[in-house]
Amino acid sequence: MPRIGLSCVVLLIAAALTASQTVIKKNCRTSVPGYECGEKCMAFFVGCYHSDGQMAALPKNNVLNLRGTIDWQKWADAGNAGDLIKTCAQVAAQRNMKYFGVEFYGECYFGNTLNKTPPKVTTVDGCDKYCGFDVGGANAMVVYEVLTPP
After folding, report:
1. Which positions make up the signal peptide (predicted)?
2. Domain that holds residue 50
3. Tally of domains in the chain
């Protein structure tokens, strides 16, 4: 009888771990820690938006491509693309842009107004697929607001 009880406990723990992993994997992040981008510069998460062709949260004509600088192992170890996000934030601050977004993992887009027409990525869409490492993947843009206090 005790052996059956132990088996049930093991199964319950395995089920709980599987369920918790599924929840973590499917949850869309509603906040991301701010990224420092200089002595008086912080970048704060706004959201992850679908991006399709020219329909994007930020203009597609103002781009800086940093895809060639991606260090996938560093991102995997850190759980985010902090180095790239900081670089995009610094460029946004230098250009006096209020927002920047990262799409396709290493393309930084900039603007002073945010187009809220594209829908935000939801748990149904699969946040990890679109918004992993705190940057947008293919067809998604993670947007940040840059704050530079006087």
Report:
1. 1-20
2. 34-147
3. 1
Q: How many other β-carbons are positioned within 10 Å of the β-carbon of residue 31?
A: 8
User: Rounded to 5 degrees, what angle do the CA atoms 32, 36, 37 make?
Assistant: 125
- pLDDT score of 144 more than 90: yes
Report the C-alpha gap between 9 and 88 in whole angstroms: 48
Residue 69's CB is within 10 A of a number of other CB atoms, namely 10
Instruction: Examine residue 77 and state whether it is found in any structural domain, yes or no.
Output: yes
Residue 57 has pLDDT above 80, yes or no: yes
Confidence band of 70 (pLDDT split at 50, 70, 90): very high
Say if 122 falls within a structural domain. yes
Which residue type, as a one-letter code, is found at position 39?
E
